[in-house]
Amino acid sequence: MPEPCRRDDEDGPVDYRTGDEAPGEHFSRPDRRGALPGEPQPAKDTQSSLPSQESPLSQAPERPHPVLPQGGRTRRPTAQGPGATWPGPAPYGGQPSHPAQNPHAARPPQPSHPQQGPPPRPEGPPPWAYGYPAGRPYPEPARPAHPSHAPRHAGPVGPSWPPPGPRPRASRHSDKAKAVLIAACAAACLALIALVAGVVTVANTPQEQSSPGGADLSTYRDGELFARPSPVEVDLVEHPLYDVATPPPVDCELPPLDVDANDSWEAFSQEALDCLDALWAPVLDELRLARELPEVTMSEQALPSDTAESFTMAYYESDRERITVVLPNVREVSNSIPSDEREVVWLALMGHEYAHHLQQATGILGVSHELRMSAGSEDDELDTLRRTELQAECMAAIGLRGLTDPEGDALEVVNRHFNAEGDLDTHGSAVSRTHWLQEGWENTTVRGCNTYGAEAERVN
Length: 460
What we know:
mainly alpha
């Protein structure tokens, strides 16, 4: 049991309720209602008036009343009077219901007879009590928890505030965002520095002063280019063509020939020209001559110069580079040729006309034409013409050998139908045509077709 309060200038205990000395007697501490243990408790009546007997508390000087903000729930206590109601002890956190006893303060005057029981409560609320409206009893304060069961954050009696929460942690995403932002800023700064350095470098680099008129084109011009090229002298006897080897064979698939159909003649003639152009391509490439495939056409009308003894089956136009097949004449000749030999015979005819195209490309045909126009006699003119036609016959044999089987009878078939008879002033005798056809088939170079250097009896 706790010891009663003592004064410093006395030896014995003092009853703090009455101020009387009680040497050798121990008093129990009153509870929160002011009652001692074992005393009967009067019935609680918060509405009854307290005794009018003055107590030491009523003589305490009046303290100034605190002024609360407007809109609060508490009001200023009313003046003390006989009808005022004691609101009870202040709630937790407010002022205590009784002032603390100071042992050094002067004792109040004591009554003549000691008062029995608890001292009377003063009328009206104590001047320091506030927190609830006047006229309402204060609720009983809750008994504080035992220290052993108090919460971790329990402190002094008073208003409880929630404990401070944990300090917020920095988000990883925010850290990454900051790092990315810093890296982007650094990269932008480096790019800006590089740009400024490049601009400064270009500005400080000396630039070549260009002339107002641009480059001097006179340094790229050659006066010799304005001169016309000197004409090439074509020697019909010693032409470079004669030194070129005969071309190797090529595969050629000719379509079937129907002598009565114009479309069949055109398709056969076009395919034969394609094969001949592919065959002679290495020769022209070695001579560095450009080649162009000649045009081929069909004609339904015979020539005015045709007679019963002599007529033209095809001809070449050098100024147009075009070959024309006279269909009425080739159809008439086809009637006397077996069907299995017609393709070989007409392939040799297309080879003869393509040879005229080669003469045009090498310049031989143009020189031959000039010789004919400048001939002093008709015999000289015909001699030049026969040499030109017999050379084309020889080149036709080279083409025939390259597009057919060299071991076959193609040469014999052509000689039988074209050279068995018929001597012509323009194309030579049958014997001369057979001779030059044989030369082209057997020689390994084009020199075997040099009719311009041959003896007169070979071109009669």
